[in-house]
Design brief:
The protein is 42% helix and 11% strand. The protein is α+β, with helices and mostly antiparallel strands. The chain folds into 2 domains: 116 residues, no CATH class; 64 residues, Orthogonal Bundle (Arc Repressor Mutant, subunit A). The radius of gyration is 18 Å and the shape is globular.
Length: 185
């Protein structure tokens, strides 16, 4: 089977959601569609996924997002909003959440609630660990990162060890590869 670099949905029946200027689109069966054109069955899959996270629903309601379609649109923005080559919903209905590079990261009070924490091989990554992964991937030394984040070098070493354990690697190169493969940059 020939490997392609086309985004999910461009050549198959998968779905790839992405956000552009506050609007949500998806690629499916070789075409780009507006979120409002989402098939009822796929909207139901997203709704079922959202309902598995009652804290996210409650958070949305607390900020005035009460319309069910608006809720799944926000869910799509926060959990599938990056454009990448990985399916967000496969043709057989498997949902694959992704880490979205949202400009509100680090300041949104609903981070980790509406946008799910990043699940990895051995747990979940904290916002601080994601911040450190991004800095490691920029080829900064631990000492530089420690200074930037106002933490001790031993605290930095501890963070790096935890990150390596969680993502299943053993080096800065492994952390960097993980950052690129998972669109953290």
């Amino acid at each position: 089977m020939k490997q392609t670099h086309a985004p999910a949905g461009a050549l198959d029946a998968d779905y790839e959601f992405f956000e552009e200027n506050g609007e949500v689109y998806f690629i499916h069966k070789r075409s780009t569609h507006e979120f409002s054109d989402l098939e009822v069955s796929v909207a139901a899959v997203l709704r079922d996924d959202l309902e598995q996270h009652p804290k996210a629903l409650k958070a949305m309601e607390s900020i005035g997002i009460v319309n069910p379609m608006a809720q799944i649109k926000q869910w799509a923005i926060c959990n599938f909003g990056n454009f990448d080559n990985k399916a967000d919903i496969t043709s057989d209905g498997v949902i694959i959440h992704e880490h979205v590079n949202c400009p509100q990261r680090g300041i949104c009070k609903f981070e980790g609630t509406i946008c799910l924490p990043l699940m990895v091989e051995n747990g979940t990554l904290t916002p601080r660990e994601i911040q450190i992964i991004k800095l490691v991937a920029r080829d900064l030394l631990d000492k530089q990162i420690s200074f930037m984040l106002d933490i001790s070098t031993s605290t930095m070493a501890g963070h790096r060890t935890h990150i390596e354990q969680k993502i299943g690697c053993h080096s800065k190169a492994g952390i960097t590869a993980y950052a690129y493969q998972n669109n953290l940059l």
